[in-house]
Every structure is written in structure tokens, then in C-alpha cells.
Amino acid sequence: MDIQAYIESGAIESYVLGLSDAAEAVEVEQLSHQYPEIKKAIDAFEVSLEQTAFAHTATPYASVKENLFTALQDEFAQPAAPAAPMPVTAPKTTQAPVVPMGWLKYVAAASVILLISSAALNIYFYNQFQAVNNKYTALLSEKNTLTADNNAIKARYLDLYSNVQLMNDPAMAKVPMPGVPGKENDLATVFWDTRTKDVYVLANKLPQAAQDKQYQLWALVDGKPVDAGLLEVDCNGLCKLKNIPRAQAFAITLENKGGSPTPHLDQLFVMGKV
Amino acid sequence: MEGVKKYSETELVLLLKQRQQSSFSYLYDNYSGALLSVILGIIPDRDMANDVLQEVFTKIWRQIERYDETKGRLFTWMLNIARNASIDMVRSKGYQNSQQNKELTEVNYAAAGTTRVRTDEIGLRKIVHQLKDEHKILVELAYFEGFTQEEISKMLQIPIGTIKTRMRVALTQLRNVIKA
Asked: How far apart are CA A64 and CA B49, in angstroms?
């Protein structure tokens, strides 16, 4: 079709001024979608009409606006935010409907308060947890120490108990060995099983041996010293030494570590006759 | 043009549809003067024209949901509301009674724009008066007085085909006058 002729036909002006009948209006609308030139011509006429109107404005009575706003008072949006900012650009498409907040804002406020309270409680409980955890660790370590001590004491008790059993055995011969002259404060005791001939020594009171020294027990058999064993450092109490079938006396000397084949008599500490 | 426009039409319409009082106030401040001049083009009585203006803005406010910006400018839409409201007023009994001293006959319509020389003509109506008489009367009767082309054909005793042709020429000339 001849677009220019259509534009010049007056149909557009008729449409814009509202003088077209329904069929003519539909035709213009359809053509305006189809032909940008027609759309442009419509816009141009609208703009010039508007400019004409604005070039000749009249001043309404002040009462008109007052009456309008009084009459429409209840139809305005409630000013939730009094100075609602005008959008700089508005979307072309229709805006999603604005849902009034209503009770939702109280729910939102409550949620925020709950969140803050929860966070505060978390911090509080975490601190509590840390303190309790530290105490627990300390207690656990103390308990381990006590258990170890307890086990050591129990072992020592069992040792002592078996020692006491041995010492109280009627078949056990007790040979006290007092300190020799110059070492009167020292004391040791030999327990000699008369059935098995096993020899046990109790170091009641002997000076601490030096690192490279060790006490050695001797049995005097027919006037000759026989090695009866070494007192180990880790033996606290009744120490089982060698088996001595026969002896008239026992003595202890301090020898080099590992013991000697013959006793150094100048290092004699205690001695006792059977 | 009165005042400095702060919003685009799109923004303004969006805010009106959201029922924002401030946008309606803005609309009134910016468009009431131009619309009143349109109303005065049809209803010369200032008191009545102001009443119609109030009615027009009430309609604009309540019918803004119906405005479709893809079909035309906001002002064009409001202009048509103002024109229709004015013509309705002119045709109402109340208006007829107030104009009882004037003859309300076809003679009056025929005389529109020809014999009556109005000194208070403003806006579009003033421009229409620059048209040739045979065109002017058609625009007067159709646009300012709201008669259909059939009614005008009977009134002027001119065949409807001729009315249609002349009306189109008249409107094309009107456009050229406005553009000039």
C-alpha cells in the first residue's frame, strides 16, 4: 500500500483527535504496528497537538486542586515511606504489583532480632565450651598422672607384700649385717631360705653408690669369700641374689660396676655371722 | 511550556498507577493549564470549565490503569478525556438550561465558526479558525461539539461521502497549520 498517501489522507489526525469510528481506529492501530512511518506520523501529530495546548494554557481556580485532593484523599497510596524516591528510569514493561508489607515487616523485624540473639548466644556458649574444654583437658591429664602413680604404688605394694611374705616365712634364716667399725650407722640384712638355699638381701641402710660403683654380697665359706651376687640399682627392697648352699657369714663391699672376683676388704661396709 | 518536567511520561504513569499522591500533584501542576484551555475551547464559561477540569482529573486518576502507552502519548489520552467530558457537559440538561437564552438549534451549529466571532478563543480552536470555512465547520462540529459524521451530514444536508472526504482534507490542513 502507499504509506505516504495514507499518512496524507487525514486518517491519522482523525484517529488521534478521537474522531475515527471503531473500525477506522483499529485499522490505524494495526497499520501503525506494521509501518514505522505511520507510527512516526501519529507520534508527530500528537506532539504538535500537545505543544499547541501547552502554548495556550489557562490558569485553573486554586479551589480545583484543593477539591480534587480532598475528594481523592482516600484513594492515594498510604505514605509508607513519605519521601519515596522517584525511579530514575522506569522499566518499559508493567511493573510487578507492589505488595503491601503489612504484618510481614513485623515478622522481618522479629527475624532480625532472633538472628542477633542467636548469634550472641552462640558466642556465649562457645566461650563456655572453651572454658569447660580446657578444664576437661586439665582433669584428663591429672587423671592420667594419678593412674600412673597408682599403678606404680600398686606394683611397689605387691613387691613389698611378697617381701613381707618371704621375711615372715619360718624357714627363712635372718642374718643381720651391722656396719663394720667406722660405718656403724650402715645396716643390711640377709634372708637365707634354708630349704632352697636362695639368698635375699635387704639394704636397710647403705649410702648411695656412685655411678660407676655397685654393692656386692659375699658369702664366707670356710674362711674364703664367695661371690653371692650384685645389688642392682633398680631393686628397692628384698633383692634375690645367688644360691649359696653353705656359709658361715655374709658381708657387703663396694666394688666397681659389674662386680669383682675377690672383695676389696678396704671397701667393706657391713658384715654378719649366720 | 509551563514548569520544568522532572519525570518522563513513563515514570509518571508508573507512579500514578502506584497511586502516589505526589505524582498526581505533579500531573495536575503540569497538565491542568493545558487541559483547561482545551475545555475552555468547548465550554467558554470559566466556572463550568473549572468544574469540568476537576471532573477530568478525577477520571484521569481513576482510569489511569486503562491508559496504554503503546497506543499513544499520555497527553493525547488526557486530551480525549477532557474533550469527551466537555462535550458531555455541553449536552447535559444543566448546561442546556444555563444557556437557555441562546438558541439551541441546527442554525447554531451551522453558524459555529462562521458568524460567531469569539475573542476568547484559545489553543486548538484558534488554530482551527485559520482553516477554510468549509473545513472549519466540520472540525468545529466533529471535534468541539462531538457530532458524528452522519449527524453532520444530516445537519448540513451534505452527502456523507462528501463529509468524509472534506473531513480528511480538513484534518490534513489542520495538521499543516499546527506544524507551521
From this structure: 11
Distance of CA A81 to the CA centre of its chain: 47
Q: What are residue A16's DSSP bridge partners?
A: none
**ipTM score of the complex?**
0.81
Helix residue ranges per DSSP H, chain B: 9-17, 21-42, 46-63, 74-91, 93-98, 106-111, 123-128, 133-139, 149-156, 160-179
Whether A271 and A239 have beta carbons less than 8 Å apart is answered as no
Q: Nearest 5°: phi and psi at A223?
A: 85, 0
Instruction: List, in sequence order, every residue forming a beta bridge with A270; answer none if it has no partner.
Output: A179, A252
**Nearest residue of chain B to residue A42 (CA atoms):** B72
Beta bridge partners of residue A249, listed in sequence order = A220, A273
pLDDT tens-digit series, residues A248-262: 999 999 999 888 888
pTM score > 0.80 for this model?
no
Question: Is A43 part of the contact surface with chain B (CB cutoff 8 Å)?
Answer: yes
Average pLDDT over residues A205-222: 89
pLDDT at position B116: 44
Rounded to the nearest angstrom, the minimum Cα separation between A12 and chain B is: 9
**Chain B residue with minimum CA distance to A7:** B172
Cβ–Cβ < 8 Å for B69, B117: no
Q: Which three cell numbers stand for residue A95?
A: 511493573
B66 and chain A: CB distance < 8 Å anywhere?
Answer: no
How large is the C-alpha radius of gyration of chain B? 18
